[in-house]
From TrEMBL:
This is 3'-5' exonuclease domain-containing protein. SUPFAM superfamilies: Ribonuclease H-like. It comes from the Bacteria. Residues 29-200 form the 3'-5' exonuclease domain. Transmembrane segments: none annotated. GO terms for biological process: nucleobase-containing compound metabolic process. Coiled coil: none annotated. GO terms for molecular function: 3'-5' exonuclease activity; nucleic acid binding. InterPro entries: 3'-5'_exonuclease_dom (IPR002562), Exonuclease_MUT-7-like (IPR052408), RNaseH-like_sf (IPR012337), RNaseH_sf (IPR036397).
Length: 208
């Protein structure tokens, strides 16, 4: 699967034959439910220059229903994944990170995140849309996280529809939800670092 010479995305069947993605270990995933827990890691977060970033919202099943999400915010480094079960205090706590143009938030599908954040009166700065970072591979279209992981690392990054459409507003998240959410943000930091190391990020690519 030499993506540098062939701008053809791998098929689902091809990805299924690859070794399974190795997620960050469970003990390195920190779930934050309140401000007191967040304050413990404030200094740690302030030192981070680049985060893998994602968010999850409770799914909407009724026509006309408005989302109240995101309900979970995921930030990840190489060493840890931080899952914030959002409430008013945590939105206030994280706002400086969201607004800081010098703390990069790299992820996939961030246009929708920006829309949801704006509805809460919060502006996302310093974000990098990874789906548009594969021009060096010959792809003009957006590349999703599963294809990105297959192209860069030759691994199968599983995506469970059952978990992705589960209740992310639940007070107690299941282990499967925690691992799924952490993987989404952790994969983003791995992808960004790999693109950097291969010098495949477009020079004219700018943060927004």
């Amino acid at each position: 699967m030499d993506a540098l010479h062939s701008p053809i995305l791998p098929t689902k069947e091809e990805i299924a034959t690859l070794p399974r993605f190795q997620n960050i270990s469970f003990e390195k995933i920190i779930v934050i439910q309140n401000l007191q827990q967040a304050e413990v890691i404030r200094e740690e977060l302030e030192q981070v220059q680049v985060f893998g970033f994602d968010s999850e919202s409770k799914p909407i099943f009724k026509a006309g229903e408005q989302s109240t999400g995101p309900h979970l915010i995921q930030l990840a480094t190489r060493e840890r994944a931080y899952l914030f079960q959002m409430n008013t205090e945590l939105w206030h706590f994280l706002q400086p990170i969201f607004a800081n143009p010098h703390q990069m938030k790299a992820g996939f599908g961030l246009k929708n995140d920006k829309h949801l954040f704006r509805k809460k009166g919060i502006e996302l700065n310093g974000v990098l849309e990874l789906s548009k970072c594969f021009g060096s591979f010959g792809f003009k279209q957006a590349v999703g996280v599963r294809n990105a992981m297959a192209l860069l690392f030759q691994v199968n990054f599983p995506k469970s529809k059952k978990i992705s459409t589960s209740n992310w507003a639940a007070r107690k998240l299941s282990q499967a939800q925690i691992e799924y959410a952490a993987a989404d943000a952790y994969a983003c930091i791995l992808i960004l670092e790999e693109l950097w190391q291969r010098k495949l990020l477009s020079r004219e690519l700018k943060l927004s």
